[in-house]
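Weekly modeling sync, notes
Attendees: S.R. (lead), two postdocs, one rotation student

Agenda item 3: backlog of single-chain predictions. S.R. asked that every request posted to the team notebook include the full sequence so nobody has to chase files. The rotation student volunteered to paste the first one in as an example of the format we agreed on. Action items at the bottom.

Example entry:
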Amino acid sequence: MNIKITGSGSYIPTVTIKNKDFSNHVFLNEDGSNFALPNDVITEKFYGITGIQERKYASDELTTSDIALIAAEKAIADANLDPETLDYIIFAHNFGDVNKGAIQSDMLPSLASRVKHKLRIKNPKCIAYDMLFGCPGWVEGVIQAQAYIKAGMAKKCLVIGAETLSRVVDPHDRDSMIYADGAGATIIEATNEEGGILAHETATYTYNEAHFLFFGKSFNKEHDPNVRYIKMHGRKIYEFALSNVPKAMKECLDKSGVDISQLKKILIHQANEKMDEAIIQRFYKLYDQQMPDEIMPMSIHELGNSSVATVPTLFDLLIKGKIKDQSINKGDVILFASVGSGMNINAIVYKM
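Predicted structure, as returned to the notebook:
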């Protein structure tokens, strides 16, 4: 028995926000003072570091569970299965359903239960729950689905990663330009086909790192101090990721028994293009090798950082031929990797 992804789907929101659309924003420093540089310089520097040219926001009437449903329906259709046969729905997100203009998130009932309800699944043995694991949530959901299947507790699982970060950003914080919305979903099944999940690795760092990403006040001191927004210590996250993610990737690959020369693609969380490149360069350096060309498919340039949705969306676009000059074929070995709030790191070695 092998455990494979048998179907995938994604939802790319329809509202495009280009870097130039931030030209009228009032960016402030953390202490509330005016930022020294003009916005055109800010966005130019931002693009040079992150690689983000534009990002996608969900239209006003849609919530995280709404866009997750669309991705889930596509994955179910792709796998050609009856939703009633699903044993688990694992929904990775971070902030629940946040209505446009709202100041509260809504997670009652759970988003997984909402998706199950909208799929009109009657089977009470289909267990639906949410996972709060930061950006690596979808990868961890796949690891959990694999564990259920290995334990004989499940045969078919739906794993979703979806988020609407545009609803929880501080418009006065330059970091708000990083974040985006999106949804990706996959069906994980036991199969007699060759390949599937070969190895996985997960770690949580909290001793000094727990609050590298957090909820904090707006940089605009006139805003209600009780309203909180996603905040991050960017430099600390960058240094943390470069120190720890390559090691986790190596541990995972070594555990799989696959030689690094056999690795065709690395699907890494779309956080920051320069950071992702540096992580993969360091990963190859651990094997005394150079990072190969075209090893790292990217979607961040047009889609931004949609947190937990980035990896499943990237996978879906890649296997369906929608990433320019990139492809994967049956039998190829790929590596999923992610890092995010918690601070959490994980990786999966997977054979197509």
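Discussion: group reviewed the output briefly. The first strand starts at residue 2 and ends at 11.
Action items: rotation student to repeat for the remaining queue; S.R. to check formatting next week.
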